[in-house]
Amino acid sequence: MAEETIPRRKFLLGAGIAGTAVATGLSQAEPAAAAAQAQAPAAAAAQPEPLLALNETEHAFVVAAVDTLIPADELSPSGSDCGIATFIDRQLASAWGGGAKMYRAGPFHKGKPEQGYQLALTPAEFFSAGIAAANAWSRKTYGHDFDRLSPDQRVEALKAMQDGKAEFADFSSRAFFARLLAIAMEGFFSDPIYGGNRNKVGWRMIGFPGLPATYINLYEEYRDKPYVVEPRSIADFS
Amino acid sequence: MATKLKEVDAVVVGMGWTGAILARELTKAGLQVVGLERGQDRVPGGDFVLPAVRDELRYSQRLELMMDNSTDTLTFRNRPDDQALPVRRIGAFLPGEGVGGSGIHWGGLHWRFLPTDFRIRSTIAERYGAKAIPDDMTIQDWPVSFDELEPYYDRFDKLCGVSGQAGNLRGTRIEGGNVFEGPRSDHYPNKPLIPSSAGLMFASAARNLGYHPFPMPISINSAPYVNREGITLGACEYCGFCNRTACEANAKASPNVTVMPVLRLEPKFELRTRAWVGKLNYDKAAKKVVSVTYTDLRNGEEYEQPAGIVVLASYVFGNVQHLLLAGIGAPYDHATGNGVVGRNYAYQFEAGAQAFFDDKHMNSYMGSAANGMCIDDFNGENFDHAGLGFFGGGYFSCNTPAAPPISGRMLPHGTPLWGPEWKRATVKWYNHACRFGTEGSVYANRDNYLDLDPTYKDALGRPLIRLTYNGTDNDHKMSRYLLGKLEGIVKAMNPTHYEMEPRPKNFTIVPYQSTHNTGGTIMGADPKTSVVNRYLQAWDAHNLFVEGASVFPQQHGYNPTGTVGALAYWSAQAITTQYRNSPGPLVHG
Question: Does residue B50 or residue A12 have the better pLDDT?
């Protein structure tokens, strides 16, 4: 119990200070920080991060995809600058990516949409196969891998996948896109401990305050009032 | 060959809510009890701590506390003539695994069924004529009344420290509580949680329309509380991390917090985790389960545990699977409608709405999963069904969605799901939205049932349970009616924008809806149409007691856990005061 109380007290103190300081600093600092990060892609490209699951081709696809799904603007840096490509790589290398807690015995049948995912592929295998299929389709359609397309073509290509109109060979572009979007959003909004939501940019963007210690004393005080604080993550409690 | 162990007075299969309650009540009565749990142990001080529990990815997305589908799942199809396929990763419902079971990650919504729910077939027949009930609607009266169960509801309330406002105290109606509820013998142990902003707006709109709003009854303590086991539970921190995770404050009731601490100190109790029961060993001639066989997952060895009393306290699907594999009770035959095990599977028919208010700051990340407001005006037989073309209903709620950023963001339908426009809309609406739900009943139907899958097997080599389920015309009509009434309230709240969210035509196993699976080993007064009697004792094995929502004859318009807990105490009382003294059938069918 003793170990537990120290970080909580530290946090409570911090939350109190943040609660009073917010109105002054954060709202101005936030777009500035976002703008600074938006300028950073060149620097990021010069220092590629080590990869656990994706190969270079797959990584290039993922970076291009998440930068299209979450483009840099005044609200946040680009998806990859938010750490989402890193997040996806690490998730695919995790137990989850390897198919943990997933029933994988055959026989395999396509099934109806109501019956859910029916493939033998783990998430890591699914993304690997899906990226290969997407790039093959992109080459056929545009003459290049997806990451070499212009920004407008990327948007068009992702929309075609989303609508299931991109005809991948032996793979559902609609299912691939749905999972790509889902994991990108997880990377944007999950705790930064997993490599995405870098500097809590996703949380800052929407005004999610992260982990509280407690809101018992704030719950009524902030009824129907904006509550803006420096968000706290797991690392801030650890 | 399984190693045969020394016989004990009672063995409990599964250590969730009902297993923990039964183990506690039986040891209190002096019985030697072994609890077998296939998952891991979980202890509040060690496993439910900051900051680890406040991790949406780990708990809500990667489902840390849920069953391991790599070793066990079920198969699913909508209709009896479809090919059932395995649920490769659970989605629509999320049974837990390990000590505490689904009682760790539940939202804590803690309800009692209506007095009329317990005699629903008779009530409908009395009000609308017996012919009004469609032939394929296989609803049944419960073999226990609300009044009989009330003291046990009260007992479970006082285990959990439920927060709420009474609406009917010993027959006196109290405005501000649920005036439709059955008479309570006592107040809720705790005052209601502080309602959310959205909840207050909902209550005001509902009241103006002539309805009867009240705070959601919830097993989250609004103040520190010493429960009936002498354990001090904490007060809610309004942290927003509730559903799918454990409560750091020990304010949300779980078996781990409310019962297990005393059970662990009990010399007559032994907990064996990673002990997966594969078989009930049934002596058909003696009408007894003589032992259970389990695999110790830590060493791969098989053990046979003989016991005088066997308490089956697995999840709904596990209970049905055990009985079907052991040959206890006649399996339900869909073609003829005969047989009982697997019959009357039911679910929860939820629908809802979302509303956006550009001038309101909801701060929904503060709060519990359920400090909302409700109305019960359109539940069960609380309203006249004459001419409506359906039976059943459900309570409405406006909850704090707790707005976790991965899974709780709401956007108006039709908003792009990515790109610059998505970002702008997300920023605009994240803190300005709220959600509504209608907790619809599912009145049993002959086409909805559980049996053994002919193809797919679990890690022990046993056939998986096969779920055949789809929404019925009755339930779709009911849900549409409820949504129409809900829309009136939502509109009266004057949102900037709102959308009603009806159920899709077919039930789908994919997105989360509700973990309220019920039926398959239903309780009843007649062995021809039920598996267990009013004390949850199997008609075909007098030392076997089957616990949990699998005994519900149908599902009513409320969350099931309150009734599951009450029935556990009711059943335990019958075991310790009747069965123990004279083992044998407690009811003669």
Answer: B50
Catalytic annotation, residues of B: 516
3-class DSSP state of B198: helix
d(CA B394, CA B488): 16
Distances (CA, A) of B188 to A168, B256, B257: 58, 21, 19
In A42-71, the residues whose Cβ lies within 8 Å of chain B are 68-71
Q: Tell me the CA end-to-end span of chain B in Å, nearest whole number.
A: 37
B272, β-bridge pairs = B36
Confidence of residue A43 (pLDDT cuts 50, 70, 90): very low
- Inter-chain touch B56–A190, beta carbons under 8 Å: yes
Q: Would you state the pLDDT for residue B402?
A: 66
B197-208 and B473-492 helices, crossing angle to 10°:
100
What pLDDT does A34 receive? 44
**Close Cβ partners of A124 (under 8 Å, ≥ 6 residues apart):** A53, A92, A93, A97, A98, A99
Q: What is the overall mean pLDDT for chain A?
A: 85
Contact pairs from chain A to chain B, CB under 8 Å? 181
Contact between residue B331 and residue B465 where contact means Cβ atoms under 8 Å apart: no
pLDDT at B370: 78
Contact B51 A158 (CB under 8 A): no
Q: How far apart are CA B525 and CA B340, in angstroms?
A: 13
Q: Contact A211/B51, CB-based, under 8 Å? A: yes
pLDDT at site B192: 97
Residues of chain A found within 8 Å of residue B223, distances taken between Cβ atoms: none
Whether B512 has its CB under 8 Å from any CB of chain A: the answer is: no
Choose among B514, B507, B524: nearest CA to B557. Answer: B514
B positions 199-238 inside 8 Å of A (CB): 235-238
3-state secondary structure of A138: helix
Give the pLDDT confidence score for residue A4 in this predicted structure: 36
Interface-testing mutation among B57, B456, B464, with chain A (most A C-beta atoms within 10 A): B57
Q: Give the per-residue SS3 of B531-561.
A: CECCCCEECCEEEEEECCHHHCCCECCCCCH
Cβ of A102 and B89 within 8 Å? yes
Question: Inter-chain contact A4–B405, Cβ cutoff 8 Å?
Answer: no
Burial classification of residue B265, based on how many CB atoms lie within 10 Å of its CB (0-12 exposed, 13-18 middle, 19 or more buried) = exposed
Span B534-558, mean pLDDT?
A: 98
pTM (predicted TM-score): 0.94
Provide the pLDDT confidence category of residue B45 given band limits of 50, 70 and 90.
confident
Asked if the C-beta of B61 comes within 8 angstroms of chain A's C-beta atoms, the answer is yes
* Rounded to 5°, angle at Cα B91 from B258 and B113: 50
Backbone phi, then psi, for B197, in 5-degree steps?
-60, -45
